[in-house]
């Protein structure tokens, strides 16, 4: 026989209130699942109405009973995890921006090592390059040329001396 949990009128009122003012559709759906369960619908009915699995319904109801409305807001998955806030990243990059403004050479490798030292752990180079892109940093290099290349006057005069062949 399945366990039936009874929700207090205060809990039902809290769910209805948060359902109306939930910030996004995902949270609203989670609150709706628990609300339907609190209204007496069984597990399979709630799952079919909300188009989710019975395990999801069970997990969300358990999270609500254990942690309240916060159990429905927080997710199991944390995407876009960053070691610093945007402001901290800006402050970190400002040191290198000042170095670059003084004419010193600033490399991404040097910055990445300083970043790892600051946060106290290793990170991937691609993750660090994403941080740089997020703050509009880009690779700026002088136009490549050979170190022993002749000056432009010599090149122009050499062009005038070459005979032009007509076919």
From TrEMBL:
<feature type="domain" description="Winged helix-turn helix">
    <location>
        <begin position="104"/>
        <end position="153"/>
    </location>
</feature>
<protein>
    <submittedName>
        <fullName>Winged helix-turn-helix domain-containing protein</fullName>
    </submittedName>
</protein>
<dbReference type="Pfam" id="PF13592">
    <property type="entry name" value="HTH_33"/>
</dbReference>
<dbReference type="InterPro" id="IPR025959">
    <property type="entry name" value="Winged_HTH_dom"/>
</dbReference>
<dbReference type="Pfam" id="PF13384">
    <property type="entry name" value="HTH_23"/>
</dbReference>
<dbReference type="InterPro" id="IPR009057">
    <property type="entry name" value="Homeodomain-like_sf"/>
</dbReference>
């Amino acid at each position: 026989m399945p366990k039936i949990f009874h929700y207090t009128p205060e809990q039902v009122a809290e769910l209805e209130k948060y359902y109306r003012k939930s910030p996004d559709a995902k949270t609203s759906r989670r609150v709706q699942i628990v609300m339907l369960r609190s209204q007496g619908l069984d597990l399979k009915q709630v799952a079919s109405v909300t188009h989710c699995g019975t395990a999801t319904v069970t997990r969300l109801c358990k999270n609500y009973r254990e942690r309240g409305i916060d159990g429905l807001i927080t997710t199991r998955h944390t995407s876009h995890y960053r070691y610093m806030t945007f402001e901290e990243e800006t402050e970190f990059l400002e040191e290198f921006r000042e170095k670059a403004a003084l004419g010193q050479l600033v490399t991404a490798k040097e910055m990445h090592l300083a970043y790892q030292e600051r946060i106290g752990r290793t990170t991937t180079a691609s993750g660090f390059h994403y941080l740089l892109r997020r703050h509009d940093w880009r690779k700026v290099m002088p136009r490549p040329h050979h170190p022993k290349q002749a000056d432009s006057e010599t090149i122009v005069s050499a062009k005038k001396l070459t005979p032009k062949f007509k076919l």
